[in-house]
Amino acid sequence: MTQHTELNGNSSHSPILLGYVIVNKELIDDGKSIGYFYRETPDSSEDSGWRFFTGKETQEFVDNAENFVLYSASKLAALHPAILPFLGLNAPVELEWYEDDYVIVEEEQ
């Protein structure tokens, strides 16, 4: 069971727009909406640790690396400005679209 912590677009976290993110190509090429994203420990100095998905991918889709691309964080924020207030959050963190805004996903203990 997951819980949601409400965050609004006026978050006090300053966005980090340097580096790259790993993105489902459909978010860029097809203009699909971001439904789920998370930040983990980065893989390299250029990697921000952010991973972006529609939230509707199958496991088969996710397992195929050709469905994802390394993309500029600032370019993704320009395409999907609603993520901007959250890019300064530290890893680990997960967010998803819930009703009308992004919320932090918290696992119940």
Automatic annotation (TrEMBL):
Domain named Immunity protein Imm33: residues: 21-100
InterPro entries, sorted: Imm33_dom
Classification via Pfam families: Imm33 (PF09951)
UniProt-recorded name of the protein: DUF2185 domain-containing protein
Organism, scientific name: Enterovibrio norvegicus
